[in-house]
């Protein structure tokens, strides 16, 4: 029995649906860009932003200097919602991965085969990681095409590609962190039906902690509990990647996966 193939096929349809929905949103977002330049929307939006406290804007990855008539600033702002969707999808994949076998009663079938628990976990991790990679590649390609279509003539193609590359590399880091956290939590979850609500809870709890960290200096340490802020689009476009966040992200992945293997191998499923 090839667990990888079984898991991949089971996840593929959902993957395409997520990719299509996000692709439609990307196209809609990017088609709105020309109006930011041609209809004077930047002046209107800019005046509204200037009336808000700088700390509040920063908490939501915006600054008073954000120019929505600039393709890079506009892309960073709208694509943060796609990055958030990617993080949520990744968390759902992780949380439901191992819980699905127990809730659907297929864990008994798996254990009746000559495979170790570690092999089961490895196959599921690889299948989910590949599915997530396909999702990221699809939305990345759609973003490239959409951005090239609407970009101003005076903006260099290389500049656009570079910025989008940064955004999606950041998305990959954020998504795989959430996926591995989801895997660790999946060991304790008995019902796959709860996966979506748990994944949403994980993502938005960490996201809110990130907001608090930027609103209050005494809560600044909370930002390390918010994987989204490790590579928020507006930050990576303006400042690039911070080494400490890459190290923390990789550390979370390693610890989460190690914990998944250890706990899953010791877990009693009473079969």
Automatic annotation (TrEMBL):
Keyword field contains Transmembrane helix: yes
CC annotations in GO: plasma membrane
GO molecular function terms listed in the Swiss-Prot or TrEMBL record: ABC-type transporter activity
The keyword Transmembrane is annotated on this UniProt entry: yes
A Pfam family of this chain: ABC2_membrane_2
Key words, A-Z: Membrane, Transmembrane, Transmembrane helix
Membrane spanning stretches: 12-33, 78-99, 120-147, 167-189, 196-215, 245-264
Name of this protein: ABC transporter permease
Lineage of the organism: Bacteria, Bacillati, Bacillota, Clostridia, Eubacteriales
């Amino acid at each position: 029995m090839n667990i990888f193939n079984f898991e991949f096929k089971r996840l593929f349809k959902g993957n395409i649906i997520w990719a299509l929905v996000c692709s439609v949103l990307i196209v809609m977002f990017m088609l709105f860009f020309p109006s930011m330049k041609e209809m004077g929307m930047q002046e209107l939006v800019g005046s509204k932003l200037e009336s808000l406290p700088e700390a509040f804007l920063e908490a939501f990855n915006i600054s008073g200097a954000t120019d929505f008539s600039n393709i890079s600033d506009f892309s960073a702002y709208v694509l943060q919602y796609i990055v958030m969707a990617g993080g949520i999808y990744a968390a759902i994949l992780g949380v439901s991965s191992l819980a699905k076998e127990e809730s659907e009663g297929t864990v008994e079938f798996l254990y009746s085969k000559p495979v170790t628990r570690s092999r089961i976990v490895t196959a599921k991790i690889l299948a989910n990681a590949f599915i997530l990679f396909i999702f990221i590649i699809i939305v990345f390609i759609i973003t490239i095409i959409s951005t090239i279509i609407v970009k101003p003539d005076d903006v260099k193609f290389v500049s656009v590609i570079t910025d989008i590359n940064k955004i999606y590399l950041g998305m990959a880091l954020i998504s795989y962190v959430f996926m591995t956290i989801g895997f660790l939590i999946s060991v304790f979850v008995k019902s796959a039906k709860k996966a979506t609500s748990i994944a949403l809870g994980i993502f938005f709890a960490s996201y809110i902690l990130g907001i608090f960290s930027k609103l209050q200096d005494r809560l600044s340490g909370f930002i390390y509990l918010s994987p989204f802020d490790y590579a928020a689009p507006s930050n990576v476009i303006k400042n690039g990647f911070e080494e400490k966040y890459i190290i923390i992200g990789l550390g979370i992945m390693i610890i989460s996966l190690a914990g998944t293997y250890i706990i899953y191998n010791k877990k009693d499923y009473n079969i």
